[in-house]
Design goal:
With 271 residues, the protein is an alpha+beta fold. It is 51% helix and 20% strand.
């Protein structure tokens, strides 16, 4: 037939449909449907080289995924959904499904981390000599530490913030939630890093009592929570590609020293 796909196009589209998310039988069946108005199931099986005993399963899957539709006449017929509708809609559903999976994994992971933390502490045989300091290089782990401390802060939170961000404090709901709990929040930003998106959020932060000031440059990244714990991130001076190494601390004396440093910069920073 004139509307049959050329062999070279057929192979190309067949493989690309599998990259999108269809299996081999589904991709073949959809391509046959695309080139014809409608088919009975067993007719399609012969055309698409799908085993007769599997063709109904394949067609049901295509209908469920939005690539085929049923036309009910004297017998059940199947036709293709227009590709410009079928493919974007399928990808959007896939995206939503993956986001739900990731959110579910995040909730389970957080719960598991809390439950295993006690077992870990017990298994390590008590507090070690340097348990109040922990070196972290992985940005995702830095973000976990930061968010965990920010979620639990009760009285005060201060931060030196400069890019690149493991967590951007001007794009973090936990900062606003802390302010809503009555936590005194103060942030010093590097003025050169303030783009339009950040400027748009400043009034929002100001409205909930978060104080933000600016400095031309900052010596490090720093966050201190309740004057007791926090993290310091230092730029590695040795390697050629910029990288940050963070020290997570739980030490009142060190936190007090970092607070003193922050207050010096706060006084000379600009509103």
């Amino acid at each position: 037939m004139a509307n049959e796909l050329a062999e070279v196009d057929y192979e190309k589209f067949w493989r690309r449909l599998q990259q999108v998310g269809l299996n081999a039988y589904e991709a073949r069946s959809y391509l046959v449907l695309v080139g014809h108005p409608r088919f009975k199931a067993l007719e399609l099986a012969a055309r698409a080289r799908v085993p007769r005993q599997k063709v109904y399963e394949v067609l049901d899957s295509l209908v469920e995924k939005g690539f085929a539709q049923v036309v009910q006449e004297k017998t059940k017929l199947f036709s293709a959904v227009e590709p410009g509708l079928a493919i974007p809609a399928f990808l959007e559903r896939q995206k939503e499904h993956l986001e739900q999976q990731i959110e579910s994994q995040r909730r389970h992971g957080q719960s598991l981390a809390v439950e295993l933390r006690a077992a870990y502490a017990e298994g390590q045989g008590g507090r070690g000599t340097l348990d109040y300091l922990r070196i972290v290089n992985d940005p995702s782990q830095i973000a976990v530490h930061y968010r965990s401390m920010l979620a639990g802060v009760e009285r005060s939170y201060i931060e030196f913030s400069r890019p690149p961000y493991a967590v951007d404090p001007l794009d973090e709901q936990l900062v606003k939630q802390a302010a809503a709990r009555g936590v005194k929040c103060r942030i010093i930003l590097e003025s050169e890093a303030l783009d339009g998106a950040h400027r748009a959020r400043l009034e929002d932060y100001k409205s909930v009592g978060i104080e933000v000031r600016f400095a031309p440059s900052l010596p490090m990244k720093l966050a201190v929570f309740d004057g007791a714990q926090g993290l310091v991130a230092l730029l590695d001076p040795v390697i050629t590609r910029p990288a940050w190494t963070s020290v997570v601390f739980d030490h009142h004396g060190f936190a007090e020293a970092m607070l003193g440093l922050f207050e010096q910069w706060w006084k000379k920073s600009e509103e």
